[in-house]
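Q: Predict the assembly, please.
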Amino acid sequence: MTPKSESPERPETSSPPAQHLASELQILRAELEIQNGKLREAERRERDLTESLRESRHLDSLGRLVGGIAHDFNNLLQIISVSLDLLENDSRAEDRSDSLRTARSAIDRGSLLTRQIVVYGQRAPASSVVLELPALLETMSPVLRSLMQGQARLVIDADPEAPAVVGDPAQLEQVILNLVVNAVDAVGASGTVLIRTLADHLPHVVPPETPARPDQPALLLEVSDTGSGMTPETQARIFEPFFTTKPPGRGTGLGLALVHAIVTRHGGRIDVQSRVGTGTTFQVRLASAPGDLVRTAPSAAAPESVDLDGTVILVAEDDPVVRRTIERLLRRRGFEVIVATDGAEAVDRFNAHAASGIDLLLFDMEMPKLSGTDAYNVIRHHPACPPVLFVSGVADEVPSPSSPRIRFLRKPYSESDLFATLAALREEAMR
Ligand SMILES: Nc1ncnc2c1ncn2[C@@H]1O[C@H](COP(=O)(O)OP(=O)(O)OP(=O)(O)O)[C@@H](O)[C@H]1O
Ligand SMILES: [Mg+2]
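A: Predicted assembly structure:
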């Protein structure tokens, strides 16, 4: 909008002296400056308001997230508590093993839930290994099956010829888990959830950091269900964080946002087809791993072949209950156990006992004073430093360079995984 006084077509007759014109211009400039200031102030207020709205939405969603997690965990603890009560009173071996199975599956689900929370906090793939989704699906299958309700069926159709991919196993586990949990919710107590992995010959996925392989088929992971399906309006919003159609306590609306973020981080793409009353199919495409990289099977524990009786082990764990339980487990198996309550004490204990011989170390990674990895970094230069097993509920792997003398187990781990891994380390030490 040009002010009238600035118009160049102003008639000659009414033309004011040049001085008057200049002062009028000055007034207009000053006014413009004031208006500009007001505009900037309004913009700033709008930014502040948007920010506080975003923060309050974030807090609100955080509250819902925490509420949802607390709810899920309480249910799992309830299952474990009831199973233990039953176990105490059951006399039939069949009932006892049933209670044990139920408790173990609740623990597996709790463990997946904590993995999910950890993955939410990550921005990038924490690790990149060559992995085969059929093998990953096989390790996940007991947990996936435990999610099914009533008569609902889970079918896993994994083509062993499907290409390997490069990715973070913990994060890709989350992709599968979230898609399956949604499918399970959609089918309820009847219907079918189908997971397929196959080679997809459309060359449209090329992750940014992987050498382009337009000649290679991508990996297609498909999770489909014969459940409720979605309206186009719902479908348009499913990847929005905190979008959910589930009642409070049943869903936080973060599942698919996380799936989308992980697939994108891995340079892949995700598509969805759905029809109300018919079902839904999610398709995830990931580029195949470069052929010259070696395929690695998921970290299956080595079979126990060495005698562990009399093995001296230094255990560093800050949680007293966890420490006592591990100690009991190890002693029952014939280990001689030295315990430390934090990383600094672990170094002291090592120095005190190194001369008489310590065969293995079992270090929690997160401990006060000195972390497990820091404690190991102090000890590792000692000529008598034995192999180490790191355990963690937060980390995905050991940060230091990989070595057959360093192993990792994610908490919670099973007794059989623990002993198989310790046996493998012991074998390594005796080479
Ligand atoms: N397989 C499916 N069938 C039908 N609707 C689905 C399916 N998968 C996702 N949805 C819809 O998408 C919404 C968002 O899914 P998302 O996984 O992000 O969150 P959620 O399952 O509601 O909660 P959360 O995963 O955080 O527990 C769901 O609430 C549901 O409406
Ligand atoms: Mg979900």
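The CA atoms of residues 115 and 170 lie 7 Å apart. The radius of gyration is 30 Å.
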